[in-house]
């Protein structure tokens, strides 16, 4: 049975809903913190909290009385509510998407010419951008990459875990997501685990792996590209 088709057997009373919403507020705040990279420039904190609370309430009404499995279920519902709102807002205008793609194309060209990953100094010299503009580009590019990764994994990750079912896309038929994840290297798999299972923010993952947030963003983008290319074989 698909998670989205789950219907609670025992309907909660209004008092029980209020009690459980209050008890699970830490999960709401945790998910807001985790998704801050995608949403900070688009949804203000109060609106984001309301969206997340509605996701939690929907989870409670579908699930019923929480048990040991509820946290994973609720996390995915809250995450889905926030990301759905982000998509509806069309947070990246066409002009901004084109600019991001152009900068990425330039960076790839610089990397080919240098035979290595370019530093900010390499990029700034070629593109004449400031450190602030480059950080803005990284944040937008990372948010876009995370959105793509969420879209891919939400179709195959069940209950917030790495246990997967067959994907139902027209393009993706017989290959399973867990096989694609297994094709990643150890560090890439760890990043997925920390982000989706442990629900750490990018900043927290950066601290765990002793890397910068910018580097975690780059690795997330690489993970997304690897998974996408796996299903395009």
Structure summarized in a few sentences:
With 233 residues, this protein is an all-alpha fold. It is 69% helix and 0% strand.
Q: Could you please describe the fold and organization of this structure?
A:
This protein has about 230 residues and is mainly α. The protein has 3 domains: about 5-90, Orthogonal Bundle (Rna Polymerase Sigma Factor, Chain: A); about 90-130, no CATH class; about 140-230, Arc Repressor Mutant, subunit A, CATH 1.10.10. It has helices spanning about 15-25, 25-35, 35-40, 45-65, 70-90, 95-115, 120-125, 130-155, 175-180, 185-195, 200-210, 215-230. It is elongated.
Number of domains: 3
Global shape: elongated
Mind describing the biggest β-sheet? none
Structural class: mainly alpha
Distance between the termini: 29 Å
Estimated radius of gyration: 19 Å
Catalogue the unreliable spans: 1-5, 156-175
Helicity range: 55-70%
The CATH topology of the largest domain is Arc Repressor Mutant, subunit A
Features:
Arc Repressor Mutant, subunit A, 233 residues, 69% helix, 3 domains, Rna Polymerase Sigma Factor, Chain: A, 0% strand, disordered N terminus, mainly alpha
Present the secondary structure layout:
Elements: H1 14-23, H2 25-34, H3 36-39, H4 45-63, H5 70-88, H6 94-114, H7 120-127, H8 131-154, H9 177-182, H10 186-197, H11 202-209, H12 213-231
Helix pairs in contact: 2-4, 2-5, 4-5, 6-7, 8-12, 11-12
